[in-house]
């Protein structure tokens, strides 16, 4: 027995060492095969360095120190900040709050120049939708480029004149078995993996992380997050390619939350990017992710009773396990509750198409102890890319915006 335990321990050590030495990339979509690696050590960042796009040169952000975890709840500390504007959010009596979810389609999928142009489109589309708070997937932390959610918050503030708040939590790359000792997620081993990530080389950066974020004109109270358990071992065994095995072994996911401080009550806003489908057993990992998120929501609600919501790129169709499990947990699918005939397809948008091409509903806003008044696809603007002049959309996902019923109408 001692020999078995020692062998297992040595295997874990070898696994971590091999991961740091041979890391390629876990970019958020196993169908994308990024290039090889470079070396340099990343540092955690709060503020962006100036970009070559004047519209995205962020002024220094103020750290939002009040977004601490809830006492008594085991949570990770997020990276948070604010883009100050001349106006602050004021919720008039009876005003409905609007919640949205948007997969940003990170720079790893294209280029930094493309990301900068697409952030401009994201900001315009969010403001057109009148969203007050947005759950973001495929947000990024890049040196020296900065945080994409911070860039977005700055542009939202510039366009609206309002103050916008943001929080971010890193998901990948993450060293197996490493704890999250750094604010915003990760630790020394994860930092080393980030410095050798294929996306770091592709983008010409010294480090690159992907994660989840929330951006909001509604002020934040407490905030925190958790790392989700890794995939089941059966997924690794079912893999037929090296790329699939790499994903099954090392992909990591997180869930993060921010407490929205609305007039008369608070609202716990959770956001997550679910595991992708890489084998026939991937649904098990997704269902376990639901279970861990549900437990987290229960713990937060037990300490601070308020309505809860979850935004996600769930990587699961309406008939799949994620939605079914969340409905069992007491959540309402805001889209299906307010749209009996519209498909609500969000996934599969071609960035170069001149028309809407989304064919699958995999992005959701789920509500608990609060009801939806309406749900719509975010009005998306297609625009010419500065580099090529072709038509593109800001993401390969369409966003959803949900108007909540006001307290008076609940």
Structural notes for this entry:
This protein is an alpha+beta fold and 410 residues long. It has a single domain, classed as Endonuclease/exonuclease/phosphatase (Deoxyribonuclease I, Chain A, 4-Layer Sandwich). It has ten helices and 17 strands. It has helices spanning 2-22, 112-128, 148-160, 188-195, 198-202, 233-238, 242-250, 282-303, 321-328, 334-338, and strands at residues 62-63, 79-83, 98-103, 133-143, 146-147, 164-172, 207-216, 220-227, 254-262, 265-273, 308-313, 332-333, 363-368, 372-377, 383-384, 391-392, 400-404. Helix 1 (2-22) crosses helix 4 (188-195). The protein is globular. The chain starts with a helix and ends in a 6-residue tail after the last strand. The model is unreliable at 1-23 and 26-65 (pLDDT under 50).
CATH superfamily: Endonuclease/exonuclease/phosphatase
Write the CATH architecture name: 4-Layer Sandwich
Approximate shape? globular
How far the N terminus sits from the C terminus, by CA atoms, comes to 59 Å
Q: CATH topology, which one? A: Deoxyribonuclease I, Chain A
Tally of strands: 17
Average residue pLDDT? 83
Helix content: 25-40%
Strand content: 15-25%
- What is the N-to-C succession of helices and strands? HEEEHEEHEHHEEHHEEHEHEHEEEEE
Assembly annotation: single chain
CATH class: Alpha Beta
Please summarize the sheet with the most strands. 9 strands, mixed
Structural class: alpha+beta
Rg over CA atoms: 20 Å
In the predicted model, the low-confidence regions spanning at least 5 consecutive residues are 1-23, 26-65
Continuous helix count: 10
Instruction: Write down the domain tally.
Output: 1
């Amino acid at each position: 027995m001692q020999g078995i335990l020692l062998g297992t321990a040595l295997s874990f050590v070898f696994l971590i060492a091999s991961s740091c030495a041979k890391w390629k990339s876990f970019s958020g979509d196993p169908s994308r095969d990024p290039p090889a690696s470079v070396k340099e050590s990343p540092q955690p960042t709060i503020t962006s360095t100036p970009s070559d796009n004047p519209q995205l040169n962020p002024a220094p952000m103020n750290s939002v120190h009040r977004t601490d975890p809830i006492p008594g709840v085991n949570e990770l500390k997020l990276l948070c900040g604010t883009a100050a504007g001349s106006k602050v959010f004021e919720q008039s009596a009876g005003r409905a709050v609007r919640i949205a979810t948007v997969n940003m389609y990170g720079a790893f999928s294209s280029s930094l120049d493309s990301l900068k142009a697409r952030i401009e489109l994201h900001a315009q589309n969010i403001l057109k939708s009148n969203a007050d708070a947005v759950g973001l997937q495929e947000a990024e932390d890049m040196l020296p480029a900065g945080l994409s959610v911070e860039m977005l918050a700055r542009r939202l503030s510039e366009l609206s004149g309002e103050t916008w708040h943001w929080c971010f939590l890193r998901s990948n790359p993450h060293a197996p078995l490493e704890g999250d000792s750094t604010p915003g997620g990760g630790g020394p081993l994860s930092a080393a993996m980030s410095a050798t990530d294929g996306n770091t080389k592709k983008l010409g950066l010294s480090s690159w992380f992907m994660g989840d974020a929330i951006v909001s004109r509604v002020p934040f109270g407490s905030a925190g997050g958790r790392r989700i358990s890794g995939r089941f071992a059966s997924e690794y065994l079912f893999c037929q390619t090296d790329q699939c095995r790499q994903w099954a072994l090392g992909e990591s996911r997180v869930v993060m939350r921010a407490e929205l401080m609305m007039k008369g009550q608070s609202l716990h806003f959770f956001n997550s990017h679910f595991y992708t489908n890489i084998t026939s057993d991937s649904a098990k990992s997704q269902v376990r992710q639901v279970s861990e998120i549900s437990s987290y929501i229960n713990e937060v609600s037990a300490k601070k009773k308020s309505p809860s919501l979850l935004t996600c790129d769930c990587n699961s169709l309406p008939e799949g396990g994620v939605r079914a499990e969340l409905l069992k947990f007491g959540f309402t699918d805001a889209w299906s509750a307010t749209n009996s005939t519209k498909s609500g397809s969000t996934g599969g948008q071609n960035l170069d198409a001149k028309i809407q091409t989304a064919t699958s509903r995999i992005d959701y806003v789920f509500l608990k102890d609060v009801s939806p008044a309406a749900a719509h696809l975010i009005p998306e603007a297609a625009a010419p890319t500065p580099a090529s002049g072709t038509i593109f959309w800001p993401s390969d996902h369409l966003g959803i915006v949900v108007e909540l019923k006001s307290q008076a109408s609940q």
